[in-house]
Predict the structure.
Amino acid sequence: MVSNVNVGGTIHSDPVDLITISEASKYATELLSKNVTTSNISYLIQYGRIKRYGLNGNVLISLSELKQYYQQHTNTRESSWKKELGNDLNWALSFDQYKEAETTKHVHRLHPYKGKFIPQLVEYFLDSHTDMFKTQMFFQRGDIVLDPFSGSGTTLVQANELGLNAIGIDVSSFNAMIGNSKVIKYNLEDVQKEIRRITYELNAYLKNSRVLEFEQQLLAKLQAFNNKYFPVPEYKYNLRRGLVQEAIYGAEKEAEFAVEFQKLVEVYNIRLKQDNSNSFLDKWYSQHVRQEIQFVYEEIQKIANPDTKNIISIILSRTTRSCRATTHSDLATLIEPVYATYYCSKHGKICKPIFSILKWWSTYTRDTINRLHQFNKLRTNTEQLCLVGDSRTIDIASEVQRSNPHLAELISQKPIKGIFSSPPYVGMIDYHEQHAYAYELFGFPRNDELEIGPLFKGQGREAKESYIQGISEVLINCKKYLAEDYDVFLVANDKYNMYPRIAANAGMKIVNQYKRPVLNRTEKDKGAYSEIIFHLKEI
């Protein structure tokens, strides 16, 4: 029974099929035909998906409960999604055999980005393999591929892995910065030297502040409180089975701990809010965090090597995003700033906002270096570049010539073979706003008005017509630089059936469609969802 929690009792069981976590890992790996680690099993226990049993101090689980879990969450998903989305759903393109570490491999996770596709999807269409769905290869090593909606640069990175040259275009200066940061060949010794210098200076700066001591004391009190009132994994197990009134119990304990939190704030003289909330950086960061961000930013400006400055700026941006004053469940979609401890429905305990960037800065510096090392082992001697501009009007040849003469020479010798891109979905995301903190911090100009199909324009008739016109104009402009026998692949959720018109407007025809399930979207959206990869060619 969960101590100190009025759960109304627990589920009692006397299973005879107890197995170890290691045995569970082997069983699940064979069952699902993909690697299921002991960490994956531990996650199921920690978050109350399956019950933990103990025998002589060992952690055991019930094999029958494990079987039931996977039957409910795997075997039925494909059939239920096909029932909802149609039998033409190509489950092979779900790539559900890949773990998150593989879909966010190496430099793909240098910086968060809403709405990006996974690298395996790009690789599927760009590489040389064929199968029952992809019956011919469309690109060969040495070819040039174009992504006129480059986003976070996934196409650029995968093109490099596969020995293809690539050009990206994005209207967002920050998006282009992210994309280019992933494919630059860095002097890693210089990057590490500057990281060590900045980290040393940040630690020296923090010696004059009591914020780290405050956080240490706060974490100690939180741990003791959560162990008492939200024991792991018992609390979450009972919560998932409706034995805890989460809203009532969580609010009660949140108010109880708030007293201790306020005492610490007063003892250590912590500034929870800034003096005003006029800008994004003013509103969404505590006073101490904002000051630390500015301190690191000023240290980055001292870096001489532009490539080193670029990648460390990306680290700072990633750190800044993670240090916003919000709840864990609202990190992807901000609602209201949170400056005090709160009951966290995502983690099932009392959590806190961030009061210093040091932890995340240290984590992301190490992670970035590791990912750059990983990608260096895979990279090919090819050229990739993301341009900043409006894909409807940009002169690709002249802009590439200005930024990368070698790549421009390749284009003059060999036209661009085709396009692989994911255009924005109408009325779904404001691409500039998702990185508002970075635009403000780095002083990038915002081109929100040039976005095609942004969230703020909605999904009404006028917005759809504007979207059709915008995507059509992109294809018309880009077509001037393509080879005669080009292949264009566009990833879209075309629930309004706009792409037949878009293709016709651009003088293209849809020769094939690949409908795939999208298994992982945002933290809160787990519903059945699909997208179509349209294959277009010249009429």
